[in-house]
Backbone:
């Protein structure tokens, strides 16, 4: 099996189908959705209240939920380790795609 490398993707548009293929289990997608929703809510809370220590919670919420999805349901390695920026963007695009019903939970 060919191991995909960052250089295999020339753009996020090329990466996103791969990202979705790594998130095929509906429970994993639900964990990602909850984690991303918490990240958004926490970011709004930090800005609204000026509680800067809340920034520490952002990666815990986002990665914590996502990694549970990967390790226990997908049984794969999170794309974050190999493609950190594309993967972060993928989380938010997948969140939007769930909200717009392009992807089912």
Residues:
């Amino acid at each position: 099996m060919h191991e995909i490398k960052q250089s295999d993707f020339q753009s996020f548009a090329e990466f996103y189908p791969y990202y979705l293929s790594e998130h095929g289990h509906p429970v994993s997608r639900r964990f990602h959705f909850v984690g991303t929703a918490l990240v958004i809510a926490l970011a709004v809370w930090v800005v609204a209240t000026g509680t800067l220590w809340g920034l520490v919670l952002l990666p815990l919420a986002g990665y914590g939920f996502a990694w549970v999805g990967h390790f226990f349901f997908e049984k794969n390695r999170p794309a974050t380790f190999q493609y950190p920026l594309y993967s972060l963007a993928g989380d938010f695009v997948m969140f939007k795609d769930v909200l717009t019903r392009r992807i089912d939970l």
About this structure: The mean pLDDT is 92. Helices lie at 12-21, 26-49, 57-74, 84-99. The longest helix spans residues 26-49.
